[in-house]
Fold each of these.
Amino acid sequence: MHVKRRFYAQILLLPVVCIAIDTKYVDIYQNITIECPLNQSNGIMWERDTRDISEKPPFITLEDGSLFLENVTKNDSGEYRCSEENSAVKYNIQVVVKTPPPALPFYVHPSTILAYLIWQLNGTGGYPITFFTAEYRLMNESNWTSIAPTHLSPNLRRLEVYKLEPNTTYAFRMWAGNKLGPGVKSEVINTTLHIYTEKQLAARLLAGAQTFDTRIWIIAVAIVMGTLTVLGLGTCLLLYQECRTGVEDEQEVIELVPNIILNPGFEGNMQADQMPADENCNNETPVRLNNNTVVQPRIS
Ligand SMILES: *[C@@H]1O[C@H](CO)[C@@H](O)[C@H](O)[C@H]1NC(C)=O
Ligand SMILES: *[C@@H]1O[C@H](CO)[C@@H](O)[C@H](O)[C@H]1NC(C)=O
Ligand SMILES: *[C@@H]1O[C@H](CO)[C@@H](O)[C@H](O)[C@H]1NC(C)=O
């Protein structure tokens, strides 16, 4: 294959008309040929949207004016522009290099003998995540222990690590994988909590007791006892009053009740004055009860 190598510096031309053309996807470590829509073999110029030209070795322009990128890495992702020499019209072609997943941000929430690993997805690299892997080791050892299973479900976001030692420092590392392979490993160091022995717990409780002021305790007891006494006396007084008024009212209550039941329309002036005895020696008047029953005077 005949390859023309051209060296172009980025020249700022004003005004520039940019026409977005296409997005090209390429897997990492592959080659890609980017075609320019200008249908001519000579005088095609390529440039990148980067300020640092020295970042990238000179582009390889093929015979037909296409750009050839060899063995691409993540850094080759970006916008490429082709144009005719001395033309203000540029064609933009976006290149996206697909990679294994980027580093997985995660944190460790330790307990005494277990720890939770909790993570988020920070991009997939271009292909869906197919697995997660988590490992741990003692800080002073070099062998990593895999947290089974080696390939965790891509839907998981949290994992428990068992059988850890209390008060011990561990290193944990995790990564995600897609069809291009395992991604960048990220590492977190954390220490498990220590277990208090019974002796330590007792010591802690006693430490609290020593600084406790007994005068506060006495005042508190006095306040509570005082309140209880006042409440008790009050209750007795109320009960005593209740009993006394109960005895006094009893008779009145007994007399009033029949009156109310027999004569709901009771009025004081309905009680007729004593009448002089009639020819039948009757000194009582007829009484009409509220159910219209007329009670006639007795005939003696
Ligand atoms: C990329 O192109 C080079 C030659 O330019 C070739 O040697 C290499 O095998 C190609 N790589 C792939 C993955 O096709
Ligand atoms: C990508 O670019 C960064 C800085 O921009 C550099 O540190 C890194 O080494 C480059 N990676 C590759 C694979 O060229
Ligand atoms: C935890 O470990 C450190 C040293 O690693 C030690 O100094 C400390 O006493 C331990 N604490 C407990 C409560 O065991």
Amino acid sequence: MMNIKRNVLLNPGPATTTDTVKMAQIVPDICPREKEFADLMKQLRLDLLKVVHADPEKYASVLFCGSGTINIDVCLNSLLPANKKVLVVNNGAYSSRAVEVCEYYGLPFINLQFPYTQQPDLEQVEETLKNNPDIGIVYTTHNETGTGLLNPIREIGAIAHKYNTIFIVDTTSTLAMRPINMQEDNIDFCMASAQKGLMSMTGLSFVIGNKQVIEASKDYPKRSYYCNLYLQYDYFNKTGEMHFTPPVQTIYATVQALKEYFEEGESAKWARHTRIFNAIHAGLDELGFKDVIKRELQAGLVVSVLYPDDPNWDFQKVHDYCYERGFTIYPGKISSTNTFRLCALGAIDEQDVKDFFVVLKEALMYYKIQIPVIYKDKE
Ligand SMILES: *Cc1c(COP(=O)(O)O)cnc(C)c1O
């Protein structure tokens, strides 16, 4: 085995991977149209269903070559019947991305916007469905990765189903970390990419969804060629292959990552992420940093932190100091507030976070940033 430098990525994906996942990409050259490769994808697709406890009789996973955003594009452009609208339950950057996808395709939509620091008001969601019988899709994001806020998907899904609509959830930053159960969580479609919860490489994304709905979408308006869900699903059924060239190496890595996922186990893995998350909070508390989102509303994977009001604070400098020492931290994604993020993704554990905070503290001292850090609006 080669000696590969280990970096601790505290950014919201791609995540730190194991060496065994990295090495799984080094295989003899293969044409992905060979049966051997189709067999690999067949098992991978079934394993993805297992991650979200989806019955293969009822659900299918469909693979795409692209980053996670391809799933948002695919679901919205493919699953909306003619004369129907999308309702986006929006309290963050990723649901806003779905709104942009609707705009780009000219899909009719309602952008039901809530503050990015709060969970959506379910009564308002229901009211909107009641008043708009032409809504065909309810869409939201499970963990708003920009802030780390958890959305009550099970409850939103129940409302969506009460009004006979399809419920699509962007689970990119929870799947294979925070446990998900398609049926119990009232999800018709969810999605992720290989480099987040699964701790694999970039380039492979997947949608998991209700087969009946995918089959019905065969006759819906066709708004994209490369990103049509039915076309890709149908091609898999007929040939066992992706319609176009798959990300071969990432698929090998993901097969290994899934093996490691099932070896670690759903609840042990979630417990590990929780341990990391708690260690992040402990480290932040010790240095006096403040969260953006109330603790009880956080999804347990991303902590969004307010910049201190210290004249010497410079995120880029602190980032560079940590980066040079093997720790990657990430800027925030809230336009109105200066924040950075620390995430509990990847093949890391509590000790890595403790090691990180030693370095972060050094960085603060090096740049003469006051500890505990200071905020102007002291309570
Ligand atoms: C990472 C992520 C995506 C996908 O982003 P890409 O940059 O396309 O990989 C989508 N939704 C959520 C919630 C995410 O965290």
Amino acid sequence: MSMIMDGRSLRLLHAFLMFLQHLNPALGFISGVGDANDRCIERERQALLEFRKGLVDDYDMLSSWGSQDQKKNCCKWKGVHCSKHPGHVLELDLRGDSEKTQPLSGKLSSSLLELHHLSSLDLSYNDFNMSQIPEFLGSFNNLKHLYLLEAEFGGTIPYELGNLSHLESIDISANNFNNVANLQWLSHFEAYDWADIVNRLPYLTSLSLSSCDLPPIAPSTHTHFNYSKSLTIVALSDNHQNSSIFQWLLNFNTSLVEIDLSSNQLRGSIPDALGKMNSLESLNFDENQLEHSIPKSFGNICTLSSLSLSNNRLSGQLVEFINILSGCAKNSLEMLDLSLNQITGSLPNFSTFSSLKIIYDGTNNLTGTVPKGIGNLHQLEVFCVSNNSMHGVVTEVHLSNLSNLWSLDLSLNSLALQLNKEWVSPFQLRIIYLSSCKLGPRFPSWLQTQWNISILDISDTGISDKIPKWFMELPPTLQYLDVSSNQLEGQFSHILFPSKMTLLSIAANLFLGTISSVCKITGGVLNFLDLSGNLLSGEIPDCFMHWRKLVILDLSGNNFSGKIPTSLGSLSRLQILLKFVDLGNNGFSGQVPGWIGEGLPVLNILILSSNKLSGSIPFELCWLKYLRILDLSLNDISGNIPQCFNNFTAMAQKGDFYSGIIGSNYTDSYAYDYEGVEEYVDDATIVMKGRELEYRKYLGLLKIINLAHNNLTGKLPGEISSLLELVVLNISKNNLIGEIPQMIGQLKQLQSLDMSRNQFSNEIPSSMSRVIFSKRLGLVLHNLSGKIPSGTQLQSFDAADFTGNWALCGPPLPNKCPGEETPNQSDQPTDHDGNEDNEKDGDEFEKWFFAAAGFGFFIGFWGICGPLLFKSSWRGAFFLFLDNTKDWLYATKLAMCMKRLRWKFKNQG
Ligand SMILES: *[C@@H]1O[C@H](CO)[C@@H](O)[C@H](O)[C@H]1NC(C)=O
Ligand SMILES: *[C@@H]1O[C@H](CO)[C@@H](O)[C@H](O)[C@H]1NC(C)=O
Ligand SMILES: *[C@@H]1O[C@H](CO)[C@@H](O)[C@H](O)[C@H]1NC(C)=O
Ligand SMILES: *[C@@H]1O[C@H](CO)[C@@H](O)[C@H](O)[C@H]1NC(C)=O
Ligand SMILES: *[C@@H]1O[C@H](CO)[C@@H](O)[C@H](O)[C@H]1NC(C)=O
Ligand SMILES: *[C@@H]1O[C@H](CO)[C@@H](O)[C@H](O)[C@H]1NC(C)=O
Ligand SMILES: *[C@@H]1O[C@H](CO)[C@@H](O)[C@H](O)[C@H]1NC(C)=O
Ligand SMILES: *[C@@H]1O[C@H](CO)[C@@H](O)[C@H](O)[C@H]1NC(C)=O
């Protein structure tokens, strides 16, 4: 079962995997040491020591803080910065690293108040275990900067912070504030919302309250304040703001430079009045529900350089947007992101936008061709129009002057690239997404001149060619290579892979030979390996020890032989992520390896179908409690079905998607807060193309056991009926005997049940009548007898569903049960051909299984990434990671296509 997915899904997955691999426990405090020359004031030193006492410093981050003689000068302590003569403590910088690997925790002692001169306090990225931000912080008369982002504070934002009358910047983003409590608490005062705190801070220049669960601002109760004249940055991303916030923002209309209201609940039109903000440079309303076009006034914001409106409901012709921005804004605009809207029309000529560097117009309803005028945007660095309905040809005329271009994404359109064989590209691209464009049939020669590529996706581009020499010397910078679904031909062993590859997919091509060269990928960061659907052969090399981060392994549909390598199981002592293993459709022989149960404990999907595996099903497989899909069909497996399938708890538990995730080292502690999962799932489905099935509907529900076509003997163990969420059960074509477990009717989620071609003896258990099958049953039971239990569902099926059960009687079959015959009914049994496969049933199963292949991806992806994203701190770190790495800018943008994932940290200090 090959797992080809479109480029979009893949790159999203990849971005997250990269993020995971970035997590590095070795980082320490970022801050420097104190100023060396100034003796600190004894009172302040005592206050700091008292403060330290309250803290839990498990990682000895404050080892330089001490009372011994050589440590007496507190101005030299880590994170302490003093003034000169006398040495008053001015700054306390105890910011942890953004992964919080060595956090401070414990209690914040009010002894700090002794630091009368303190002007800056930074406790970000520590772990204060959901405690409240202490109210005493509101009493620092001289505090100008307060940074408490991602410090695991909880409870409410103390109103006292509004007493920090000298505050210039505050960032308390991404804690765990409780919005309801917030309101209750505030109501003790004569103030009703968070904005009142802010309104009382006349010197504020920077306000960052992202992910603070802030309730919507109350409309226009804020007239009696003296608003800060200096507020330049407002970052309120990922809160609950509605359009009432616009009015409040206008109080700062002369000073605001940067506004981030992404991931809120802004609806309707963007108000024209915002165009009055005459110093605005950056506006981010990503991920809201804004409609219509942009206001005409925006064209007159002569300072506007970045306009980001991705993932809204904007509509209209793209040319209208461009016309509006053609005022003085056209000279300043560098970044325009309109992706993920419903914008129509063709790509207009941006030629007069002389500063434009970045265009994101992906996932809209754009039609038409790529205008030649694009070729005049000399500054252009990033051009993305993926996933639209554009057509036509892109030629040298479009590209020859774009010497600054480093990211090109034309994927998922009907575009063709026709570049002369001799054409010399003016650019060195780092990111290339051309999935489903037409590039072939020859392998493009210009690609072979790109030496800095880190991401290359030319999947499904109609290339039908021998692999060029370039493959024998891939750029060392290459980390992501997807050439799937072409007709590339050549010896796999000739490809020289860079050691730091993270993703490799050559699925559905014509690669030949053995794959030992893949072992050159020794960088330890490979997380996705898909070689499915080629002509590869030989044994699988024993180099899994290099691939500790591997999550998805798909080698299906080749001619591999030999044993399944034990190095796959040797990962057991390492940190294992492998969640998806598909070795189906090969020639593997030997026993079903029992060590899989021990070695790959978080496996979600195990597909070993269509091989030559023999022996019995090892009981160790039952240790795979997160398993959702087990497919051992079409082998020569014999013996009894182990009586421990009830251990597959993921198949027994309610359909939440994430029950399968808990248990991986990364996600253990993040397995909560799944509210809104459905939303994510919805959006995930957007990124799939060309699938007819409604993944969304079944996503998270799909749980499959397929043991068909083996030589299993003995009874079907009753334990199977405890897998309450099982959707597909296929045990057909074995030699099972005895009774069908009575309790099988408990499996209320079953959509396809195939028990045909066994030697079962009993009647259909009466419990089956309670099963509510929402789809066609696909029930093929063999050698059953007696009356089909009456119950609306079973009766509503086709007689063909009961094929091969000669002794069955009663509706929906035409033959009546003994004693129920009516005189005018024929006594003859109908001719059900029990020896032929039920084709319809087969189709049904195909469908399910096809779905399963898609799900493999989702489970792999969400299994790892989902929980992290619910954990705000990790979300922040993820985007920070991406933001800091230019190569991944695109990945950020892509990741941002997903609802609520778009949350981003600004002003990290
Ligand atoms: C965090 O708080 C919880 C509940 O308030 C408490 O049980 C737990 O011990 C605290 N953990 C630490 C490390 O202080
Ligand atoms: C904050 O200021 C208010 C008056 O605006 C005062 O009543 C209150 O005591 C102050 N709180 C603190 C903690 O200083
Ligand atoms: C606003 O400023 C004026 C003059 O400085 C002052 O009299 C008034 O009390 C202030 N209003 C508020 C609500 O702080
Ligand atoms: C925003 O929410 C507040 C509080 O729920 C409500 O009073 C106000 O009417 C809302 N404004 C808009 C524009 O929906
Ligand atoms: C945009 O395309 C989608 C999918 O093709 C379609 O459902 C939608 O109606 C289109 N919207 C507009 C405004 O054309
Ligand atoms: C069920 O799985 C656990 C490990 O998850 C294992 O210790 C136990 O032996 C298994 N039970 C059976 C009956 O195999
Ligand atoms: C998780 O990883 C850490 C370090 O990477 C390791 O010390 C720990 O034993 C692992 N835990 C499990 C359950 O694998
Ligand atoms: C199936 O197993 C039985 C008993 O274990 C054996 O006699 C028979 O030959 C096997 N059939 C096949 C096709 O392997």
